[in-house]
Model the fold of this input.
Amino acid sequence: MSDRLQGTVMFELLGIPPQALFGQLLLGLINGSFYALLSLGLAVIFGLLNIINFAHGAQYMMGAFVAWMLLNYVGVSYWWALLLVPLVVGVFGVVIERLMISRLYHLDHLYGLLLTFGLALIIQGLFRNQYGISGLPYQIPSQLAGGQNLGFMFLPNYRGWVIFASLVVCLSTWFIIEKTRLGAYLRAATENPTLVGAFGINVPRLITLTYGFGVALAALAGVLAAPIYSVNPNMGADLIIVVFAVVVIGGMGSILGSIITGFGLGLVEGLTRVFYPEGSAVVIFVIMAIVLLIKPAGLFGRPA
Done:
């Protein structure tokens, strides 16, 4: 008996159609791609700046809306939006950091959380007032329309692209921060900014660009999400709580932890939808509670 036939028989004995299982695993990987990208941006900002950026969900939503506006008002295609939107929203993040967040670095983390939470409410309110909450469609680019029949499941081309793009961006970011001189400067600037400044490095500018980069990652996730989910002001608010749970499980500030945990929890969520659908909405929070009881610093975090 072939391996594929054995797998099919096993799933049928469990009462689970193979297509349903692999479909939910694909959905879990897609969700995990967004969890990983967004938690990576949060980890970069917290790990290097010690700011809990609660506006991250709103900045993700801004990425989707800016891509939609560029397409409908200016005619900018999806592929150009992948390049332009992170720059536009990243510049917005730089302005916010310079005008507001930079004043809070020497204060308790709670002040940064309250400020960014207030910013998130303002941004969401402005978009909700202008566009409502019904959601706006964003068409999948023609180059990624259709899908591939893999035999055991049908893989839409765009979903496969999202998973691939997320992996490339996440691993590239990890490599830059952990394995390059620029990443060493960033880590050193958070530990001893005075010493790093003595070597002629503009530490405030480095910190500002780091925050802008974290915001750009959220905006990129918004562009990738626009063709899958409807573009609406609440899309960030619905996701940010789960992403914070992912960051806590992986370890606050852990770059590699946010990537592995994001994809892993997406798969766990997908499997839960197959075997226990009622628990899929809370399984990540249950895992978070267990991890905090066993290892308060997170799976990949370091004790304070």
Remarks:
- The longest strand covers residues 147-149.
- The chain has one domain: 22-132+143-294.
